[in-house]
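Example for tutorial group B:
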């Protein structure tokens, strides 16, 4: 089912909305005889059902809202992981200015190469649900370079210690991004969301009386479209590294295209 979440936004929007509206209105027309028999046998059923229907909708809209908020929070967390990794790489890249040549140029070249590989290759790997590994050797090259470097003076040792700290941060944020590749809402949440939608829309279809059939179809269609809209947003934000809405790799491209983080070799 991962292919469903990776569809373009327009196609996803049309499919989800049409599914909810179409199934709801189709079921309403199919079960119209059942609704008429219920209304004929229980004349006051509509008035009595309205109260219970209202309570069901209140409870369901709360679940619907919380689920959408949960999907948004997951997406924000993924974006934050990307932002932290980009920030740590940029600090690492700018810190290269404090090193002597040729180490200075080597650090900048390796960081830029790593950032471009992440943007060009690892993003595509994460998009299909594969834990990315295209840039791991390039990151290892940065680790080896800084690990082999031996500063001589005390100021250089302090600078190198700070660089190693940023390298550790970059490594941690890289692992966090990789481990978030398969993040998504639990299956049980989707079960509650869809079963709740079926119960709520069935109640509006079978147990609510509207004298004008066309008006009833319009009202029920609007309710189904509203549920579909919220479900569409949830689907689009779910699977933050694979879904229709994902964090952009622009920050990595920015690092790859700007030597020394946009600063000159003299630090200007």
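The residue assignment follows.
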């Amino acid at each position: 089912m991962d292919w469903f979440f990776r569809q373009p936004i327009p196609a996803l929007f049309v499919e989800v909305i049409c599914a909810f509206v179409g199934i709801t209105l189709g079921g309403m027309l199919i079960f119209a005889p059942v609704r008429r028999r219920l209304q004929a046998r229980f004349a006051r059923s509509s008035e009595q059902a309205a109260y219970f229907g209202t309570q069901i909708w209140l409870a369901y809209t709360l679940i619907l809202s919380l689920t959408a908020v949960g999907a948004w929070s997951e997406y924000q967390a993924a974006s934050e992981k990307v932002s932290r990794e980009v920030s740590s790489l940029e600090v690492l890249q700018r810190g290269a200015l404090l090193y002597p040549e040729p180490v200075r140029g080597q650090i900048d070249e390796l960081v830029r190469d790593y950032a471009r590989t992440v943007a060009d290759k690892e993003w595509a790997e994460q998009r299909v649900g594969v834990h990315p590994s295209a840039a791991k050797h390039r990151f290892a090259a940065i680790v080896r370079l800084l690990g082999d470097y031996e500063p001589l003076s005390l100021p250089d040792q302090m600078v190198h210690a700070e660089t190693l700290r940023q390298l550790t941060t970059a490594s941690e944020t890289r692992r966090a991004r990789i481990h978030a590749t398969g993040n998504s809402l639990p299956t049980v949440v989707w079960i509650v969301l869809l079963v709740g939608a079926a119960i709520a829309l069935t109640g509006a279809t079978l147990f609510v009386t509207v004298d004008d059939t066309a008006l009833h179809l319009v009202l029920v269609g609007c309710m189904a479209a509203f549920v579909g809209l919220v479900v569409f947003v949830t689907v689009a934000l779910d699977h933050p590294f694979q879904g229709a809405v994902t964090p952009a790799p622009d920050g990595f491209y920015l690092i790859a295209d700007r030597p020394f983080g946009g600063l000159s070799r003299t630090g200007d």
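The longest helix spans residues 45-95. Compare this with the pattern of hydrophobic and polar residues in the output above.
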